[in-house]
Specification:
Layout: H1 4-10, H2 22-31, E1 50-51, H3 71-82, E2 91-100, E3 105-113, E4 118-123, H4 130-138, H5 146-161, E5 165-171, H6 173-184, H7 187-190, E6 193-199, H8 206-209, H9 212-217, E7 221-226, E8 241-244, E9 261-262, E10 265-266, E11 268-269, H10 274-288, H11 292-308, H12 314-318, H13 325-333, H14 337-362
Parallel strand pairs: 4-5, 5-6, 6-7, 7-8
Antiparallel strand pairs: 1-2, 2-3, 3-4, 8-11, 9-10
Length: 363
Amino acid sequence: MKNIINYVQEEKASFSNKAFREIDSLVLSQLAYLYFDGFVPELEECSESIALGSIVYRKNKEKLYQNTRDSMKNQKLLQACTSSPRFGDMKINFYVNKLDYIKEKQFSAVTFLLSDDTAYTAFRGTDATFVGWKEDFNMAFSNFIPSQEESVFYLNRVGKLFSGSLKVGGHSKGGNLAVYGAMKCKSYIKSRITDIYSHDGPGFRKEIFDSHEYCQIKNRIRQSIPQSALIGMLLEHHEKYVVVKSRRIGIMQHDPFSWLVNGDDFQYEEQIDNMAVYANRVLQEWLDSLNDENRERFVDTLYSVIKATGAKSFSDLTEEWWEKVPAALDAIRGTDEETKHFVLQTIRTLIIMSVKNLHLELK
């Protein structure tokens, strides 16, 4: 079963001979997960773009893949791109990487120059840090998150530095940031954005989804989701999307390397599967049962327990996890009775809704 690595290795046509498509966007969105710190010129440097292929010959190139999910596949993807007739001539610039534990912000973006007059901006999705995941959950009760504001600033800045047409995109939260940035950036830059790609990216609260700004760009949005999509169906989402077959199951289909490729395109399905419909219905009903205040209270309480362990990422939490359990238990014991009751009641509601919807599904 082939994936995006095989696609890059086998595709021989340049962008001038075969138009840029969703599968190309996913490739570049995955590259945005690499840590280009010290390898790619930063946004504020205003330096010349560098060849993507030059990066693999730099010292300490293993740092590119540190803390990425599946570092081996990321390495294979970059190596395939550098020797590819389609991707090998690309240049790269305007790298940004910000992590702020106080503001609960995890943001990164980079721009690939496909030609002299076309560029693709890729926004990084959620990384392995807990602050990144916390920011994602904040979308459930906030009209905007810090990374969304950063995406607007980034596009406004890149739009000044690069005068050609723009494509924007990202995987997971990166897809959400691509849509938000395109929606909120300055009008003269927005008019130059030809395509907006969201690969299994979460949606928006209804106020944003129904806004005039969203309506201005919605026909340029290209959304793709795996057949058991969960992340990409959260909140209000774009009504038009394509479904891609994945070799994995459940939430693990969120992994772009699991998306199947058939020749020079994705392997498509007609619709998402029944379990995805069930899971999304349960989650949406559960969210609808909570007002914004209670959504925030629930997320903040769970996050405070994780913070008490001192772990900054999933790898931190799993490393000698038994030493972190006492700190987590102390944090739970230190929570007031009303909050403990609220959290347990909220989880109980989710379980009840799951059982109820499963019963309906089996009828």
